[in-house]
Write a structure and sequence with these properties.
about 0% strand, about 80% helix, mainly alpha
Length: about 160
């Protein structure tokens, strides 16, 4: 059969597909780590804010806790930045390999992987919820940094008031 792949070509296709799925898994893992650290950071900051607010006012003795909240926010921003870059790197590598799979094995067939995903995205993006949410929030990447920045601002606010 003309459509059957040689052993070497089949092995290459399997290798590329394995690399693609592995890189997508690594990207998801980086996103999961980022999410877990940001969630933990929010819990720590919430506990510190609860301790500060427990007596009903902010005094000079609350300044160290405010500084700790600032440090938690800075750590969260640094971690979110680092793991966003790691996610992007693995995602871009996966897209590069997917393009190679398309070019080598699906070009000229009914549809490439990229074309299938593109059509699915067009249907999704045509929906009202997608259009509304993107107008309101923009890209989801903004939220990857918003919470650590808010913690940082909360810590700075508490520290300034405590002075």
């Amino acid at each position: 059969m003309a459509d059957e792949l040689s052993d070497g070509t089949k092995a290459r296709k399997e290798l590329l597909w394995g690399m693609y799925t592995d890189l997508r898994t690594h990207a998801r893992h980086a996103e999961t780590l980022r999410s877990n650290v940001v969630n933990f950071m929010i819990v720590v900051a919430s506990v510190l804010i609860a301790v500060i607010a427990n007596d009903g006012n902010i005094t000079r003795k609350d300044l160290p806790l405010g500084v700790i909240i600032i440090l938690v926010g800075l750590l969260g921003v640094a971690f979110a930045t680092t793991y966003t870059e790691l996610y992007e790197r693995n995602w871009r590598r996966a897209m590069y390999i997917r393009a190679a799979l398309d070019e080598e094995f699906f070009e000229g067939k009914a549809m490439t992987i990229t074309e299938l995903i593109g059509q699915a995205d067009q249907r999704h993006e045509a929906g009202r919820l997608y259009r509304w949410s993107r107008r309101v929030t923009g890209t989801a990447h903004r939220f990857w940094f918003a919470l650590p920045v808010l913690v940082l601002i909360a810590g700075a606010t508490v520290s300034v008031v405590a002075l």
